[in-house]
Structure formats: structure tokens, C-alpha cells
Design brief:
Layout lengths: L2 E2 L2 E2 H8 L3 E5 H14 L6 E7 L6 H9 L3 E4 L2 H9 L7 E3 L6 H10 L3 E4 L2 H14 L3 E8 L21 E2 L3 H13 L3 E7 L10 H21 L5 E3 L17 H19 L5 E4 L3 H4 L3 E12 L4 E5 L8 H5 L5 E3 L9 E6 L8 E8 L7 E5 L20 E5 L2 E6 L4 H5 L5
Helix pairs in contact: 2-9, 4-5, 5-6, 6-7, 8-9
């Protein structure tokens, strides 16, 4: 029987039901430890921001808090969740290209330490709100470094016409924004942010991003007679979904980033005081599994179908991005994979699939299918399509398994109904 941590999968299902999101805490902790150990420099300070959109729940925020990392948040909801565990607001970094006014108010009142500002109108609104509340915060401007990363079109974030950030070529507009921050009463300009995409394996994109951003910062500092010295490179570090994926280790990723930034700073004479990154998927992705129970199997003219008790409601990525996954039948892990199945869900959509052409042992009703590397963007992108309840989250730490998010109920889904 396949185990997650030291806990057999059938034991998890007997205790918590099916389907399940399951996380191996020790895998997440090892990732965090490796980043903390290796993302360091003798030339400048470093800071690691967990990209909370990858996997958001109170237990995960507590793990980040215990490890003294910061949080990259993108909504009032994520800020609220952080506040429920008294997460240090100075270690919250508020992202987003269209922050609503009420969320700006909530963030400032909670004491969020830094706003990543995406555009001039957003900055104008932030200045107005901070003046009204008389509350101070730091500002980092998001720049589009014009790097086309080798990844899916939907997760490229620095193409020429990206919705995110301001093109590094728009120098006049960027200088005007900097001056607006300087002239404001409650905002302090700290530096610049860039992000080139997600699930990236070819690191030449990061090397170009670093060279572009350090050169850009040196030029802006000269133009404005200032010394903005904080740079956030974003995240996007790839993980292994299938055998075809060959991600770099946390150690190598950290070394590549640090060395390239150190060299670029020397090349362009930039006095950098802090470098930041935003790993999310690379901390939680490979630590997560989704466990399903087989309902039925059937054959059509050219395919074999394996129906599971979940699907697109708990993992939309195959439908949305064409993402590929690897799966096993937990109770048949040592049997030969003699069959090829379409692993599909229970939802009323033809596009509701998890894996196409999946080699597995011959499956039977009641078998337990485990899909690997589902730790990122499962829960956070989950839906109630067809009014199916969202899954619980189980944390496994060695031989201990505990539920950290309970299974949704029909009552949970209808609590907002007014009639």
C-alpha cells in the first residue's frame, strides 16, 4: 500500500473519507529549509516571500510564520486569513493589478508593510487612501522586464502586452510615479519588482530578467538622483509533475539567482541592499497529493475510462492549462501497469479530466487513485461546480495525520442563500 509520509493511503481514506487533499509537511519543511540555507549573499540581505496563492489555509500560514518567512498576498481575504493568526503585518506584501479601495483600506488598517504598485491609477488611489487614513506603508513598483519565459501562455507574466506591471521602457511614467511617492506624506519608495512567469525550467529567462532589472534600477537611480535598493525577482520555479519535468534543486536555483544578481550589481554599479524571491509552487507542489476513489470503469470504441469521485472542481489545471500529472493506484502500487485509462471526474462536463492516457494496473471499483504533485493551485482554484462539496486538507507529518481544513458540507454551500 502506497504511503504518504509514513501513513498508508487506505488509512487516510478510512479516517477522513474520499476524496482528499493530502500534504506531506516534511517535504514542505525541507523545501523551506533549503531556500533559507542557500538563498543568502554576503553582499546584500535576502528575504523569502511565500506566494500564498499557490496554497492558502491557516495551517500553511502558520508553517510560514514558524519559519519566519514573509507572505506575498493578493487579496483582502488572504490578508484577513493572515490576521487570524496574528501574522506580522510588516511581513505582508500586497500584490495585485487592480486592488479595490476597500481592500486597500483593510490592508492599511491592519498595517501591511509593503504594497506592490502595478500602475499609475492604483498609485493615485493608494496615495488618496493613505492620506485619508493617515497610515504609512512602503511601495515597490512592479516592472515588466520584457522577458518571454518558456512556459504556458496563461502563466507568462512579462510579455510585451502583459496586464501586469509597467514596461521598463516607460521611463517617463515610472519616474513620475516615483516622484508621486516621494511627494506623498505616508508612502515610502523602496524598490522594484518583476516576475516572468510560472513553472519555469530554463533559467536563462531569470538571467535576462536579472540583467534587465539591475541595469534598469541603476539607470532609474541616476535619473532620479536616488538610491532605490530593493529588488524582488518574483517566483515561478518549476516542479516535477511527470518524468518529463526536470526542475533544478532549491540549492541550484538559489545559487543561480544570487550569483547572477551579485555579478549584475558589480557590472552596473548598483548598491543593492535586499533581494527577494516569491516561491509558492516550489514549496508546496510536490508535497501535495490528491486521493480519489474509483467509482466505475468502462470501455468505448477506442478508450478505457476510469471514473473518480472528484475532478475539475478540485483540480481545474488540466482543463485550464492542459497540465499533466502522474498517478498511481495506491492499493496496486506493485502491480504491472497493463492498462491505459482516461482518468476523468464526476462533473457534468466533457472536459472534466485529470489525466489523459494514464498507464495504470487494471482498476476496480473502490481502488484508491493517488495523483502526485497537486499541492499548488488545487484548493485555491477549487470550485463548487455542480454544487459538489470542496475537499478537506490533511497534513501528514511522519506518522501523524490531522485534518487542517474540514470537508465542506451542503449547508456550507447554502449558508449565503437569502430565500
Amino acid at each position: 500500500m502506497l504511503k504518504i509520509g509514513n501513513v498508508p493511503v487506505n488509512q487516510l481514506v478510512e479516517q477522513f473519507g474520499s476524496p482528499l487533499y493530502v500534504y506531506d509537511v516534511q517535504i514542505m519543511q525541507r523545501a523551506i529549509d533549503e531556500y533559507k540555507k542557500n538563498f543568502v549573499s554576503n553582499n546584500f540581505a535576502t528575504e523569502i516571500l511565500y506566494a500564498s496563492k499557490a496554497f492558502t489555509c491557516k495551517a500553511m500560514f502558520k508553517l510560514i510564520q514558524q519559519n519566519n518567512l514573509s507572505l506575498d498576498v493578493v487579496s483582502g481575504g488572504e490578508i484577513y486569513l493572515a490576521s487570524t493568526i496574528n501574522f506580522d503585518p510588516k511581513k505582508l506584501f500586497f500584490h495585485g493589478n487592480n486592488k479595490p479601495r476597500h481592500e486597500m483600506v483593510e490592508a492599511l488598517k491592519y498595517g501591511v508593510g509593503t504594497f506592490f504598485v502595478d500602475n499609475q491609477p492604483e498609485l493615485d488611489l493608494l496615495i488618496q487612501v493613505s492620506n485619508e487614513l493617515q497610515i504609512s506603508t512602503d511601495v515597490i513598483i512592479r516592472i515588466n522586464p520584457k522577458v518571454e519565459a518558456h512556459t504556458h501562455d496563461y502563466v507568462k507574466t512579462s510579455i510585451i502586452d502583459s496586464k501586469f506591471g509597467i514596461s521598463m521602457d516607460y521611463t517617463e511614467q515610472i519616474v513620475a510615479m516615483i516622484n508621486a511617492v516621494k511627494n506623498s506624506q505616508y508612502l515610502t519608495m523602496r524598490g522594484f519588482h518583476a516576475h516572468i512567469g510560472s513553472q519555469i525550467f530554463e533559467y536563462n529567462g531569470f538571467e535576462i530578467e536579472i540583467d534587465n532589472m539591475v541595469r534598469f534600477m541603476a539607470n532609474i537611480n541616476q535619473l532620479t538622483n536616488s538610491e532605490f535598493s530593493v529588488l524582488d525577482l518574483g517566483g515561478g520555479f518549476g516542479v516535477r509533475y511527470t518524468a518529463a519535468d526536470q526542475p533544478k534543486s532549491y540549492t541550484e536555483t538559489s545559487r543561480i539567482l544570487i550569483e547572477n544578481v551579485e555579478n549584475a550589481c558589480a557590472k552596473y554599479h548598483l548598491n543593492l541592499t535586499k533581494l527577494m524571491i516569491e516561491p509558492g509552487r516550489s514549496i508546496v507542489g510536490e508535497a501535495g497529493y490528491t486521493v480519489y476513489t474509483v467509482g466505475f470503469t468502462k470501455k468505448t470504441d477506442t478508450k478505457q475510462w476510469l471514473f473518480i469521485d472528484g475532478g475539475m472542481g478540485d483540480n481545474i489545471r488540466p482543463c485550464l492549462y492542459g497540465s499533466k500529472y502522474y498517478a498511481e493506484i495506491a492499493n496496486r502500487e506493485n502491480e504491472p501497469k497493463t492498462e491505459v485509462y482516461e482518468v476523468v471526474g464526476r462533473y457534468c462536463e466533457s472536459g472534466d479530466f485529470i489525466i489523459h492516457d494514464c498507464p495504470l494496473p487494471k482498476a476496480q471499483t473502490g481502488d484508491l487513485v493517488v495523483v502526485h504533485t497537486t499541492g499548488a493551485y488545487g484548493l485555491t482554484m477549487a470550485s463548487n461546480y455542480n454544487m459538489v462539496n470542496r475537499l478537506p486538507v490533511i497534513f501528514v507529518n511522519g506518522s501523524e495525520a490531522k485534518m487542517v481544513v474540514r470537508r465542506e458540507t451542503y449547508q456550507d454551500q447554502t449558508v449565503r442563500e437569502l430565500e
